[in-house]
Structures are given as structure tokens and as C-alpha cells.
Amino acid sequence: AGGWPAVCGKFRAARTLSAVESLKDPETEPYRSKYSARALLQEVKQLLSAAEEGGEERVLAVRRAVLEYELGVNHTDTEELSAGEEHLQRCTQLLEPHRLSPDCVSLYIQAQNNLGILWSRRDEIETAQTYLESAEALYNQYMKEDGNPPLDPSEHFMAEEEKLTDQERSKRFEKAYTHTLYYLAQVYQHLDMIEKAAQYCHTTLKRQLEYCGYYPVEWARNAATLSQYYLSKECFMEARHCLAAASVIFSQAGNMPSAEDIDETEQDQHDLPERKAEIARCWIKYCLNLLQSARKLLEDNIGELDPDRQLELKAQRKKEEDEKEKGRKKAVLFGTTDICDSVLAMEEKVSSVYPLDFQEAREIFLVGQNYVQEAKEFFQVDGYVTDHIEIVQDHSALFKVLAFFEEDYERRCKMHKRRIDMLEPIYADLNPQYYLLICRQLQCELADTYYEMMDLKVAIGNRLEKLDSHTVKKINSLAQFAIKYYELFLDSLRNPDKVFPEKLEEDVLRPAMVAKFHIARLYGKLITSDSKKQLENMQTSLEYYTFLVEYCEKYPDAVPAIETELELSKEMVNLLPASMERLRAKLSPCV
Amino acid sequence: MTPSKEEDVCNHVKVVVRVRPETQKEKQGTHSKVVHVIDQNVLVFDPKEEEVNFFNGKKRAHRDINKRQRKDLKFMFDAIFDEDSSQLEVFEHTTKSLIDGFLNGYNCTVLAYGATGAGKTYTMLGAPDDPGVMYLTMMTLYDRMDQIKEDKTCYITVSYLEIYNEQIRDLLVNSGPLAVREDDQQGVVVQGLSLHQPKSAEEVLQMLDFGNKNRTQHPTDVNASSSRSHAVFQIYLRQQDKTASINQNIHLAKMSLIDLAGSERATATSAKGARFVEGTNINRSLLALGNVINALADPKHKKHVPYRNSKLTRLLKDSLGGNCRTIMIAAVSPSSLFFDDTYNTLKYANRAKDIRSSLKSNVVSLNLHISQYVKICNEQRKEILMLKEKLKEYEKKVGILESHHAAELSNNQQVEIERYKEILKNLFSNREEIRKEYLKAEKKLKENTLKKCYQNQCHEQIQLMCSEEKVEKATCKRDQRLAVLNIHCVHMQKKKEEELKHFEENTKWLHRVENEMRLLGQDGCIPKELHQDLQYCHLNLEVQDLKAQIKHMLSLVTLQDQYYKQTEK
Lengths: 591, 569
Fold this sequence. Notes:
The complex is a heterodimer. Chain A is mostly helical. Chain A contains 22 helices and no strands. Chain B has 2 domains: about 10-50 and about 65-365, Kinesin motor domain (Kinesin); about 370-570. In chain B, the strands form 4 sheets. An 8-stranded mixed sheet of chain B has the order 5-1-15-6-14-13-9-10, with helices on both faces. A 3-stranded antiparallel sheet of chain B has the order 2-3-4, with helices on one face. Classes of the chains: A mainly alpha, B alpha/beta. At the A-B interface, helix 5, helix 7, helix 8, helix 9 and helix 11 of A face helix 1, strand 11, helix 10 and helix 13 of B. Chain A: Activator of KIF1B plus-end-directed microtubule motor activity. Required for organization of axonal microtubules, and axonal outgrowth and maintenance during peripheral and central nervous system development. Chain A: Keywords: Cytoplasm, Cytoskeleton.
């Protein structure tokens, strides 16, 4: 085995070529270094078979397997999938009998990882899945039966004195397994097994943290994004954990050199304020979704807080005492103890259970509002119009859902006023030519808010003995504002020649119809002592109801989108004329 | 014209595919055709053998080495142009329809996509003797402006920029990297970008030509390296009515013609624009974990997904959606030489069709207000009821009874529901009573049997152990006891049967009530509320039953225990 050091040298050179040099290959010859590496590997293979008689059979078989593996990866990298598959298969065949021994297990898992990748490139994702799942199973079996840090494949071509430490071995082995999990996450995602995919993403993040294989900013962003997935599943405990971890890890950024090989660091440092604001936005969504989900649980069929439900849920919560949560928590917990402690401290700041009364809701609201301020610091109108407005819309939504928990109508009204105050100036400054979509959203939201305020004022008024002129004035002016914004929205649908479209586009059909319907109702609500004026308002109201009915007669396919409104409108169209007739008769009794 | 115009408004993103003719090299080489255009809307990629065999029979052997199954995929697009289509045809069916909208003040976007060498540049720019879509667009635009110059003053300004490595560069003047920002008045703005005012279509073309020479990689180089540079050519049109009036009508519109980076290396070079392209391929770098997670967190509904916007996406923020009209032209080569590129391009184009739906979904979502909505509807209903009542009154009491019926239908139903709830309650309390008695009877019977059994056992023991005299005495006593027990048993049996009858009666009653409830609800179903109530009652009964049974069992068990203890003595 005199040539052994030379063999090892060649092997090492091949690996450097394909890992380091190939990155510098010109685009015209993207695989130049890979091809050179392949040639070297072939040489090593030949030398090895020449020395066949020498060594022990087992050792030789493993070395051959390492070479087959390297060749397999090389061929896959250079888009020669069939050849790559052959090599990798040969590698696994050679290792099959020893796959659970410390000198083979890592290589075997990596070979299966690569077979998984290879099959995914052939669009046969199920085949990829079987390879990767078997790699996962092998890891688990090995850790259960042996558990000692296994040899890294490259060690088979190293002199004794160069061999890796146990620590390094373990690190590499775990990294290979992390990759298995990460590939599985992708496989599941492609197979639309979203929950599984999320679970594997979570585990990947967790392992990155455990083995320090992460870059803080990147990791934080991923954890924050994953929280948004949990929000869609209403798993608030998991979402909060991800967000808290994201915030904690993010605060490390800049203090800690990256462990992974990344050259984007500088760019990311530059982006730090933006990333921070992004995480803040994820927190906003967390608070908002938590409040909104709680609202959904608590509201009765007309959207008011149902006290019976409230009591029931409170009793239930006492009983459960988060027994269940603890079990779930264990499964998702991130990080080593010191990180974990900071994460838990971070979590303390906001609840992850549904708020059931105003006090609890308010606490979550305040946290959300703080994050709104933080996010707005970076996403200013000047330069980030759409982002800024999205944040303001969230802020408004926070107020809206908080108002649900408020029992006092006056105070509730004030909350809606806050919404108006933040939305109106933004809307006024926006150029609809470029931000049509946002303008429409704002118009509708403003109109709805005014509408809600009017409703509240009416409710307050109804409690009084008699409506005083001040309240009447207030109600009328709020109704007028609501009408104004609905009309603005409808105007935005007009074509450049200011003509309202004959047929509405599918995406604005419902909003437009609802706007018409609301305006009709608002005209019906306006309070006036002047009968003539009242008649006029009724006439206008009738016109809007008629529009709805006639439109649906003309385009029956619009009916499913606005069934309830249509039904009500039809009745109004039948009833209003008679009422108006009566009023008219009252006005001129002599004629 | 008009009907198609209507439809155009609805279709925000139109995707067309152009297949270029085979080159000399491809015809000569051992390559086959992998794209087969069926008609204007359908093409087959990698069709089954026989179809291709027909053209290119002898070369089959080469492809068979791959042993790969033919994909035989059908793709549908808004329009497909085959090898023989002319530039004019492509123009007529794509950007021409945009020009009307553009002159009406809509923003328009044309995206060209495809691998280098697939005919993208040819389609967009064309050759000197066969000008492409951009040129034809500009020609038509200037023509149309000429037509309306009597009524309107038009200003055209253009800019040309490139995005390379996520950096924006002006192609018409020398500049450093430029920054994108959003302005609430002017939309998306590239700071420091030079604007030019060409007088004619020719001048525009010269600018394009000049700009192309400035591109980081010249797009006509064959060396596949333009793949990472997007070129964005934007035309701003400002129209003003000439008729002097106070409120002057000004139309502003922006047309963006975009030469997207080639698709060929998108996976190999982790290109930033690869977000769209991602196929089923597994991404190997853990750094791309974000892509997977992004895909999980769907931003459509109330979520925030903080992915890093590419410069191109930011640039087009105001040009996709809203009143904007978008056309995507995907260029492909028919040859097997570009098998993967073509496949990727088609997949990408196919996915681009979905942009339409994702754009639509985020307009104004009213679903958030649903709960509030119920309130409104309820109120409205009340108002209607009130109006109806008034109307009836006004109509001088005609058919007051019916009106009441009609007006209070829903109210009535509520009352009915309450009534039935009451009935159900009674019915079930009755039922519960019966069951209780029945079970009691059953228990007594069991007890009875047990006692009989015990008597017999006891008697046997006595027979075994005691003198005849005693036995006789015991027999007598036993017979007496058994007789009592038997009478009891018959009695219980009767009671049990009685209860059973009661129960049957009750069940019949229940059925009747159920049928009546069905009539109450629409389409022959029991109203949901009542249905739940009914279910609740059933379950409750079951629970009561089980509880009673448990109690009875326990008493039987204690009884047995007692006997055993006695026996042991």
C-alpha cells in the first residue's frame, strides 16, 4: 500500500475541485471542475482495484462504496442522472450488509439522500420519498442501537493521524441527517402534505439551532414565516413560540459570526432594520389573528359578544389548565437551555390563549400596537407605500376587533374613530392611478367604519328618551360619510370615460353590489323631519335596490354571490313604492 | 371588437406561447421535435412516439437510450403560435389589444420569457427586415396618437433599465446602481432613472438598440449568459384633452415591456428570480429552507410572509393587478436539443396563468365583515317586516290573517321550534321514566332468578349434609319460598311487558313528532336546532340508561356477595 498517501491525495483533490473550485467555473463551462474531479475519482478507482489483493475485503468494499458515492453525486451534479443513479445504487449495494455499522451508516444515509434528490429531479417525487424516509429510519435505528458518532465518509481516504474527532464526526453525521429532514420537508410540500412539511421544517429549524448550523437573520426570518403557517392552523402556542424564538435569535444577529458558509452576510447586515420590521409584522399578524379567532368563538349570530359563550369558555379554560398544551409544547421547543430561557421569557410578554374579555383582549392589542409602531419605523409611507398601508390596515383591524370586546358603546365608537383617523389621511394622499387596489380597499373599509359608527350612534340614541338634534345630526353626517366612500368605491369601477360598466368583473362584483345595497340602506336611515326630503331619500334608496334586482335579472350568474342581499332588495323594491305612495298621499291630501 | 374588449378587462394575465422554427443545426443533427402544436390553444410537449416518428423516423434509436418515458403533456394557453406564424400575427394577437387600454389610461405589461436562443429577442425586437413586437407596438402607438392629435396632446417618455444581480442600472445613460422606492403619488419610482422623449417609433428603436449594447451581457450573444439579466423598457404616456375646459382630463399610463432573464440556468445558479420557477426539484441548500416555509405560509389570507422581494417584483408592484393588463409571451424551441429548457419554460408559463387568480383574490375582501353582515340583514328583515305590516294596514285590513302568516313566517318558525322543543322535552322525560321502570323490572327479574338459584343451591347443600327430616322441612320451606318468588317473577314479567308497550307507544309518538318537525324545516329535514336538541335528548337518555344499569349491576353484585359470604359460613 505504498501508493496509499497518493490515493488519498487524489481523492482529496477531487473533493476540493467539486466543492470549491467548481464555484468559480465560468458560465460557459459550468461543469469544468466537476469533470476534472470525475477524472480524478476514476483514477482513484483504478488504483484501488489494482491494490485489490492487499487489504481486507470489508475495508475495500467500503472504500469502493465511497468512490461510487462520489461518482454518483458528481454525475447527478452534471445532469447525467442515469449514470449517477447507477453509481449510487452500487454504493448502497456495497454497503447494504454493513449499513448499521459506524463506518458505513453516514455514507449510506448520504447516498440515500442523493438518490432522493435524483428521483425528485425526474419528477418522481414518491420514489424520492421512499429513499429519504428510509434514510430517516436508518438514522433512528442507528441512534437507538449504537449512537456513537460514526465515521465521516471522507475518513476512509485519510491517514490514521488525520482522522476526525468524535465531536466533528457527530457534527457531520447530524448535518447529513438534518439534510435528510430538510429534503423530506420539501418532498412533503411537493406532495401537498402540508402539515408534515411544516413539521419537518420545524424540526430542521430546531436542529439548525442545536448544531449551530444557522445564520441568525435567516433563521429568524424562517421561524417568523413558519409562525404564519401556524396561524393559518390556529395553533397559537406554536406560532408564538416560533415568533419568540425568531425575536431572540434575531437579537443575536451581528453579535455572532455565522457558522454556515455564507457570503451574503454584508447584504444582510445592511437589511437588519428591514428584517426586524418584518418580524414585527409577523407579530402584528399573530396578535390580530389571535384576537380575531377569539372573536369568532365569542360572537353570537349578529356579531356581538355572547355572554353565555364567554362564561362557558372561561369555565372550560379553567378546567383544561393547559394540560394539553404542555405536551404539545415539548414537541416544538426550540434550542438549547440558554436560548430556550430567553425564548420563554419572550413568550411571557403575550398570551397564546384566546382572550375572553376586554382586559385580556386589550393586553394582546397593546402588544400588537407596539409592533405596529416598530414596523412603521422602517416601512414609512415615503418609499414603502404598499407595506406601510398594509401595516396601517392591520392597526385598524386591531382596533376593530378590540371594539368587539368593549361593552361601552361610546368608547367603542371612539375606537372606530381612531380607525377613521388613521385611514383617511393615507387615503387622501394616495394616487389611485398606481394604487387602485389599495384605494378600493381603503374606500370600502372607511365606508364600513362610518357605517358601524352610525349604527352605534343609533343604538346609543335608541336608549335615550328622545333623539336630540345633536345625535340626529351626528347620525346623518356619519351616514353621509359612509355613502360618500361607498360612492367613491363605485366610481373607481368606472372606465376612463366615467361610464359605469355594464357587466362587473368577477372580482369586484360582490363588493360593488354590497356597496350599492349599503347605500340603499343608508338612504333609508337618514333622519329628516322634512317629508319631501324623506320622499327623495326613499326614491334614491329605491333606485339602488332596483339596480341590484335588475342587474341580477340581466346577469343571473351574479345571483349566487349576493343571494341574501338580492332577496332583501327584491322585497324592498316591492314595498318601498307603496310606502312612498302613502307618504305622498299624506303630503297632499287634497289632490 | 367590443365583446372581446369586455373580456380583456376580465383577463388580467394572458399567456401566449411562441414556438420558433428549427434551426439548420437542429434539422441536421440527431434531434427530434418535442413540441407539437395542435391548435391555437393547445400544444403537446414530448408527444408519444408515433406522432413524431412520422416526421423523423430513423432517429428514434438515439432518444431511446434515455429509456425515459415520454411525458406527452398537454398545455393550454390563451394563444399558441407555431413555427410558421409571422411577427405581425403575434403582434395582432398580443400587444395590439393592449394599446387601446393603454390609450385609455390603463397600465400594461408585456413579459417575454424563455431560454436564450428560444426566439425571445426575435419576438420582442425582431430583425431589421422583420421587426418584432416592440417595434410594431411603437409604430401602432404613434399612428394612433397621430389620429387623435386633433383632440388630445400626447407626451411620450421612455426609460430603459436592466436588473442584473439584483441591481438596477440605467441602460440609456451611464449610471451606478439605482434604488426603487414607492411614492404615494407617483407609484413605483426608480430614483435617478433617465427619461427620454422620442419623437418617432424609429427613435425608440434606436434607443432600444443603444440600450441593448449597454446590457451587462449582450442578449444576442450565444453564450447563454444573458440569463440573469432582466431588461425593462417602460413607456409613459400622458394625454391631455385639447378642448379648453376647467377640469382637464389627463390620462396617465405606463407600459412595461420586459425581457425576462432566461430560464435555462435558473435552477443551477440559484437565481433570485427563481421563485416562480421552482419545480418539484429538491433544493439542496439549507439556505433555501425559506422557500419551503414560504410555500407553506399562504400570504393570501391575513398572513404576512416576509420573503425578500426581488427587485423585479418591486418594480412591477404597480403594474400587476388593479386596472393593469398583462401579457406574457413564452418563447420555446421545438427541438429536443432544448428539451429541459422548453419543459421549464412551458411549466413556468403554465404557472403564470395562476397569477390571474391570485391577483383577483386580493381585491376587496368583504368576508371579514360577515358577522356584521348578519346583523344588517336581520335589521333589514325587521324593517321589511315593519314595512310589510304597515303596508297591510294601509291596504285596509284585507286578509289580515294571511299577512300575519306571511310576515311572521320566520317568527312563527321560531315559535314552532320552541314549541317542539317543549314537546321533545316532555316526550323524553316520559321516555326516561318508562326506561327507568323497565330497567327496574329487569333488575328485579334478575334478582329473582338469582334468589331462586340460591335457594336451589342451598337446598342441595342441605340434602347432602343433613338428616332426612331436616331435608323435608327445608324442602317445604324452599318450595314455599320458590312459590313466592315465582309469583313475584310473573308479576315483574307483566310489568316489564307493560313498560315495553309504553315504550313502544312513546317511540311511535316520537316518530310522529319527528315527522312533524321535518315538515317544519325546508326540504324535508328537521331544522338544525331541533335536530341537535333531538340528538341531545337521545344521548341523555342513553346516559341515564347506562347509569341505571350500572347501579343495578352493583346491587346485584352486592346481593351475590352476600350469598357467597353466607355460603362460606
